[in-house]
Each structure stands twice: as C-alpha cells, then as structure tokens.
Amino acid sequence: MSPAHNVKLVISPFYQFFISRSTEIGITSPLTVLVKLHPNADLHTHTPLCQHAEGTPAEYVAAAVAARLEVYGISDHAPHLPEPFDDWRMTVDQLPEYDDWIAEARAHAPDNLTILAALECDWLPGARGHLEWLRTCRDWDYLIGSIHYLPRPITGARWDFDNPAHLSVWNSLGDSDLNDLWTLYWKEYEAMVRSDLFEIHGHPDLIKKFSPGPSGDLKRFYLPVIEALAETGKAIELNTAGWHKPCAEQYPAEEFLQLAAEARIPLTINSDAHHPSEIARDFEKARGVARRAGFPIS
After folding, report:
1. What is the per-residue pLDDT across 150-206, written as a single tens digit (0 to 9) for each?
2. Are 224 and 259 in contact (CB under 8 A)?
3. 115 domain residue, yes or no
C-alpha cells in the first residue's frame, strides 16, 4: 500500500474505528468491514456543486434517515485539471464549499447515521499526480474511481462518452467501433484498479449506457478486471442508477457480478443519487440481484 494510503488510514477516525473492529469479524479491508458491519449504506451520492444535482444537505440527510441508512457517503465529482475541465464537477476553489456542505449534513444527521466524506474521481491519462494530490488534500474516508472519458472515435478528442449530448456519436458506431471502445474502456478500468488510488470502483460497465456491448462473449472484457480486483482486494459497486438510464440495467451486468462473487470481490450497493429522492433508490431490487449473483447479502 502506498504511503498516502498509510497516512490516510492513520488519520481518518472512520478508518480507525473500522480497523479496530476488523479482528472481530476476521477481515482486514476497512471497506469490507464497513459493508459487513453496516450493509445499509449508500456511498455514491452527489451535491449541487457538480452542477447537475439538486437538494440541500438537510434534504439528503432526511432521505437517508427515511431509507433507514446507517451510513450516508457524500462523494461528489472531484475537480480535475486544467480548469474549467467540463461543466459537471466542482472546481478546486470550491473544495471549501464542499467541506461546508458535508459539515452541514453532519450537523443535521442523527446519532444513528454516519456521514462519510469522499470524492468520485475520474481516471484520466496523465492525471495520476493530480489524483494523488486529491487523495491527500483532505482527510477523505474513501475515494471512488470512475471512467467517464475516452478518446472520441475518429477525432481522438477527449470525450465524456456517457453524456447524453453525444448520442449521435453512439448511433453512428458499428460493431467494430464498439469492440475498439470496449477494449480501451476495460483496459483503462483494469489500470485504474491496479493504480491503488481508490477504495471503490464505480459503475464498472458504464460504457453500456447508450449502447449494448459488441458481439461475442463479454467475459473477454470482464475477466482481466476481475483478476485485478481479486489481486488488489479492491471493491466495486452495484450502481442502481443504470435502471433509470437507456441501458435499463444496473451497473454492472449480472454476468460481471457473478464473476465478482466467485472471486469474493467486496461489493457495495449505491444509488449515485443526484437528488434526495434517489437516495437508496432500488436497493431491495439490487440486493436481490446481488444475492442471485452469489453475494452473501441478507
């Protein structure tokens, strides 16, 4: 584990608490301890600072209480350089506002609801130095790594492929183009897992949002990532937002979840909420999918 991780594990009260409990249940990963002790957690949620979410801290906390959550993790889109990077994330200068937003959520939370501070970070070529800075600029409880950008077909320009503004690009792709995109996406996803920068890896097959995968057995894309997750002990999420997108399926697909369960990959169930009404959305449905895939979820 990198020095930055070691510093974080020493400093964070959240990690101190869960590490202290890990020997009770025979596991050593702090995130796995969290999921084991508090399965009623939503660790992937957003704030209005990302420019495409709504709601106040009090409203999100009220929604978490109504959903009987024990842990509400705030993990908005992290700033990236150069700025302005895009129009759906906070800037570096807004990090103090983010601190205040989290502090206000904690002020509204009852004693039986733990509020965690996190970021969802984009894995981008050449961005490791910035990501390492993000890890240490605050005492985050965890970081989520995600991929929202790939080189755009033909032009090679930076392309936020899950942005609805780019539907025309997706509609123009043939099977060979899809195969190339999926190959690149999953190669980068494996590299992200092996980077040792993130505790959770977000919506693993986001690449399917607007278009199904290429023809053939998709396990050829999944297996290298499963191997990387197993070797690093890192976690994935079952992200329920996919049911409300054009793909109409949770992220990741059930076949990926089955492989992850067989490899004993830690799993969190998250909503990716951008509005208080989306906190813990579809969690019962998600638990059923996870159980069917082979995860020991009650």
Report:
1. 999 989 999 999 999 999 999 999 999 999 999 999 999 999 999 999 999 999 999
2. no
3. yes
For residue 26, is it within any domain? yes
Domains in the chain, number: 1
Is 70 inside a domain boundary?
yes
Outline where DSSP puts E strands in the chain: 41-42, 71-77, 114-122, 142-146, 149-151, 158-160, 200-201, 235-239, 267-270
Tokens 């509204």 correspond to 108
* Type of residue numbered 142: Y
Q: State the residue range of the domain holding 122.
A: 3-293
pTM for the full predicted model: 0.91
Among residues 134, 67, 72, 142, the alpha carbon closest in space to that of 109 is found at 72
Task: Say which CATH number the domain at 214 has.
Answer: 3.20.20.140
Q: Per residue in 205-241, pLDDT tens?
A: 999 999 999 999 999 999 999 999 999 988 999 999 9
Beta strand 235-239 with 114-122: parallel, antiparallel or unpaired? unpaired
pLDDT digits (tens, 9 = 90+) for 246-297: 999 999 999 999 999 999 998 999 999 999 999 999 999 999 999 999 998 8
Question: Which residues in 142-170 are b (16+ Cβ under 10 Å) and which e?
Answer: bbbbbbbbbeebeeeeebbbbbeeeeebb
Compute the distance between CA of residue 288 and CA of residue 259 in angstroms, rounded to an integer. Answer: 16
Which one is predicted more confidently, 173 or 18? Answer: 173
